[in-house]
Specification:
Strand content: under 5%
CATH topology: Four Helix Bundle (Hemerythrin (Met), subunit A)
Helix content: over 70%
Shape: elongated
Largest sheet: none
Radius of gyration: 26 Å
Oligomer: single chain
Number of domains: 1
Order of helices and strands: HHHHH
Mean pLDDT: 88
Length: about 210
């Protein structure tokens, strides 16, 4: 019996070390995947903002192509409608990336049994991601209906009964919607610098632990 105990101890230690090694790798991979999803969200936000900046020139080009026939704006293929459609796609991509980012939190937390890991940072990351999700959801859930209002506003130009005042009211409507979107965007942007910073710091700590094995 005395000979079996050291053997069992060796097996237990081996399993423990293997488990620690596995949790290090899983944590490292999960942090990397989180970084990927945050980058996707930022890239989608950039694309949305870029399309916002080109909306004015798209409208001016559509107006030139209309040749004084404002019914031209009833078409779905005009530039402003394409702009709206592309922004809608990027916003939905953003929501998908946020959903994926949030789904990675339980995977990261499942590695916390390894006390060598920076579990305090894991808790902070979980909180940061929850806060980002809250503000990003508010942003996208307000922006998407605004895009439908934008489309209706531009298409109203094609109404044969449109008059001078109605035509220029379009710009007021678009500006109001834009200010609404920017208000919620500001709440989202504040999250990325601290979140990215903590992801990088946590990744470095995990890599250091892996190299010290």
């Amino acid at each position: 019996m005395k000979k079996i105990k050291p053997f069992l101890l060796t097996v237990v230690l081996t399993l423990f070390v293997a488990g620690c090694d596995n949790s290090l790798e899983r944590a490292s991979n999960t942090i990397g995947l989180m970084q990927d999803q945050v980058t996707k969200i930022v890239n989608e936000l950039y694309e949305v903002q870029n399309l916002e900046h080109t909306l004015q020139s798209d409208f001016e080009e559509d107006l030139a192509n209309a040749n004084d026939n404002l019914e031209y704006f009833n078409q779905d293929e005009i530039l402003v409608m394409q702009n709206i459609s592309e922004r809608k796609t990027h916003l939905n991509n953003m929501k998908d990336a946020m959903k994926e980012l949030n789904s990675l939190v339980p995977e990261l937390e499942s590695t916390k049994k390894n006390q060598n890991l920076p579990v305090g940072d894991f808790d902070k990351l979980a909180t940061m991601i929850t806060n980002l999700q809250t503000d990003l959801t508010t942003y996208t859930d307000n922006y998407l209906p605004n895009l439908d209002l934008e489309a209706q506003t531009f298409q109203s130009i094609g109404n044969p009964n449109v008059d001078y005042n109605s035509f220029f009211k379009v710009f007021d409507n678009i500006n109001t919607l834009s200010q609404d979107n920017l208000y919620y965007l500001d709440a989202v942007l504040k999250h990325f610098e601290p979140l990215n910073g903590l992801l990088v710091d946590t990744k470095v700590k995990i890599v250091t632990l892996q190299e010290a094995k």
